[in-house]
Amino acid sequence: MKRNTHRPETKAVRGKSDLEKKNGPLATPIYQTSTFEVTDNDEQLRATPTDHFYTRYGNPTNTVAELTVAELEGVDAALTFASGMGAITTTIMALLKSGDHIVAQRDIYGGVTKFLSQWLPKLGIETTFVDTTDYDQHARAIRPNTKLLYLESPTNPTLRIVDLKRVAAIAKQHNLLSMIDATFGTPINQHPAEYGIDVVMHSGTKYLGGHTDLICGVVAGRADLIEKVHSTRTTLGNCMDPHASWMLVRGLKTLALRVDRQNDSALRVAEFLSQHAKVQRVHYPFLKNDPQYAIAREQMRGGGGMVSFEVEGTGEDARRVSESMRLFTLAPSLGGVESLVSIPVLTSHAMIEADQRKKMGVTEQMVRLSVGIENADDLIADLERALEAVAAPQHVRVG
Ligand SMILES: Cc1ncc(COP(=O)(O)O)c(C=O)c1O
């Protein structure tokens, strides 16, 4: 791993800027072009492997976004995609072949569960799902043809934290590649590559873009792996549009500021909820009584902007609470400057079988919050008022 000594706030803003360059545009230009002109065919051949050939292969605006994420993750290289799902599916198809096997943690984004369990078998790739924090179960699930350990941390929507040192050691011992969906973690709060994870993936739609106006994905890792993924992306064609890349570059400049604020506000929201009589349970890794507080503190700079909780009541109560909020907007997705609320069984995990959801701990009573950058007191006041929508507990009549 190379890298300069700048801190994340600096990398996010100046990631790719060439500080020696004089009289160039300070803001990244948008190379809104599908192709690049050359003077002769020799130059054409030289241009082919570069980002000045054809935008499905690469584009200078995309390169700025990619180098900035690589800097933030502390790895050799990164690649952008048309969506987070595009990044995941392309990377797995690039690194695995028919006959290979995947060990995947159970608590992963529902779209990925669907890809692994319903699509990859058509290509001859099987997946065994394991309990996210039972690492002996991970090791037991490994077969001679296992190639990939697929992880997510913190998990969506249960906010479990994976012990990255332990999973990286399992992968190393069995000669597996490891890949993590680090969308909830952000490169401000955690650096999975430092623990030996090979490929770090983000739905850039979320925190990296940060303004709920963009769909994109990024993978980052060692140059040899990223080169393979690049070749597959070129074939499958799910590259990012240069204008979207420009929006990502702009979003990245404020990533550290936004995440710091979201860390602080989400912790306050989680503390408020954990004291509330109509809340049965709160999931937030930086709450002192969270079962994974110690590992979260070890691996993460902040607990992140996501908080989940279960209401003291029914699924109906959870829905009413989500619909009663005014500042938290009822919408899927996360990671933007605006606070959002959603009901996981109806959104991120709607496509998963009910019994599998149950194993994950995703209940009907669960409400998921994406804490934005609004004033934390205002957000808490909104929650306090919305929780009045939970029906009073039914007292059991005796006799
Ligand atoms: C944790 C996580 N990973 C991946 C994705 C997929 O990303 P995208 O919607 O950008 O394809 C999502 C989307 O919600 C997500 O929450």
Textual characterization of the structure:
By secondary structure, the protein is an alpha/beta fold. It has two domains: 8-253, Type I PLP-dependent aspartate aminotransferase-like (Major domain) (Aspartate Aminotransferase, domain 2), CATH 3.40.640; 256-389, Aspartate Aminotransferase, domain 1, CATH 3.90.1150.10. It contains 15 helices and twelve strands. It has helices at residues 8-14, 41-47, 60-73, 84-95, 110-119, 135-141, 164-173, 186-189, 223-236, 242-253, 255-274, 293-299, 315-324, 354-360, 376-386, and strands spanning 77-81, 101-105, 126-130, 146-152, 177-181, 199-203, 217-221, 279-283, 306-311, 329-330, 340-342, 366-370. The strands form two sheets. A seven-stranded mixed sheet has the order 1-7-6-5-4-2-3, with helices on both faces. The protein has a five-stranded mixed sheet with strand order 8-9-12-11-10. Helix 3 (60-73) runs parallel beside helix 10 and helix 11 runs parallel beside helix 15 (376-386). It is globular. 51% of the residues are buried. Residues 395-399 have low confidence and may be disordered. The structure holds pyridoxal-5'-phosphate.
Topology record:
Elements: H1 8-14, H2 41-47, H3 60-73, E1 77-81, H4 84-95, E2 101-105, H5 110-119, E3 126-130, H6 135-141, E4 146-152, H7 164-173, E5 177-181, H8 186-189, E6 199-203, E7 217-221, H9 223-236, H10 242-253, H11 255-274, E8 279-283, H12 293-299, E9 306-311, H13 315-324, E10 329-330, E11 340-342, H14 354-360, E12 366-370, H15 376-386
Parallel strand pairs: 2-3, 2-4, 4-5, 5-6, 10-11
Antiparallel strand pairs: 1-7, 6-7, 8-9, 9-12, 11-12
Pyridoxal-5'-phosphate binds at residues 83-85, 109, 111, 156, 181, 183-184, 203, 205, 215, 217, 333, 348.
